[in-house]
């Protein structure tokens, strides 16, 4: 393993558990064939893993246990969110979403507003970084078809009150979809209890899978129009794409290496317990925040309250560009972070960082340690001293 302090887990978790690497390789060597297309033993065996994972993830997300076919696989959460948004909204519909969203929600909605006759309302978050359920209630109109919410922010780390929002949507007869990219695998989600109609997930973050795999889980009674078509390996003579799940939302050959990674990731999560993983990450995040608070010139966003948070901390440093801080952390301290707007421009607009090129994001993962956090705090402290010293010299010269 490279000698790097990796604090970019909100982008993708790394490293993965060793069991994930081992099972991916073993699976692909033993049964790396196309499931569901042929009747030979290897194809059947691969198909059994695929269908077993549908059941496993349906239970993991609290979906309809008697309808695991509604757990559909795709490339990632962006792919799933496009299917959801384009498949549920049409001309004349209104959608409610939030300023916390990733571009995988913002851009598809904006395209439908510009080109498809859809209306949209983006609800702001409060000063602590949370969506007020009453604001969702007030945004719903007679033609509102969908409310879609980012469960956990990839910028400020706040976790939204899904149960309350879901109840509002259910009472209003409005579909409720969530983006679980940052939370799946670290925060418990139960679609039935939270009144979630559709959930989008990705495999390469806290689910501990690989890149290139993700999908959506659709509640019974909710039908998403398929916006693409292709091969399914089923009823090939039929001239149109199938309406039955999972094929309704699946197109072409499944990423079976990704399926294997998700299967092994589930094994690891069950062994470790997501509550234990979350507690570990948050203990380190709190230490990081407390350390940064003692450094002169550091601004931390939306961490006044430490409850209902993910281990994601975004900062800026007085007198320095976020990108420059990221380069210094990388080159001088071998610490990997993420700088910029984090594909979530509305968050940065609301917290006032859009015009200063975003912020520096530290996102803690399951494999980070106390030493990693100590090193990050020390690095920011040293960078701050350099910055303040330079600013002081510049002021004296002027």
Can you describe what's shown?
By secondary structure, this protein is an alpha/beta fold. It has helices at residues 18-31, 41-60, 77-88, 103-115, 133-139, 162-172, 191-194, 256-272, 274-293, 322-333, 345-351, 370-397; strands at residues 5-6, 71-74, 94-98, 119-123, 144-150, 175-179, 198-202, 214-218, 298-300, 312-317, 335-336, 338-340, 359-363. It is globular. The protein starts with a strand and ends with a helix. The mean pLDDT is 95.
Give a short account of the largest sheet.
7 strands, mixed
The CATH superfamily of the largest domain is Type I PLP-dependent aspartate aminotransferase-like (Major domain)
In percent, how helical is the residue content? 40-55%
How many domains comprise the coordinates? 2
Strand content: 5-15%
What distance separates the N and C termini? 48 Å
Query: How many helices?
Result: 12
**Strand order in the largest sheet:** 2-8-7-6-5-3-4
* Poorly predicted regions: none
Question: What is the element string, with H for helices and E for strands?
Answer: EHHEHEHEHEHEHEEHHEEHEEHEH
Shape annotation: globular
Provide the CATH top-level class of the largest domain: Alpha Beta
The CATH topology of the largest domain is given as Aspartate Aminotransferase, domain 2
Number of strands: 13
> What integer value in Å does the Rg equal?
22 Å
The second-level CATH architecture of the largest domain is 3-Layer(aba) Sandwich
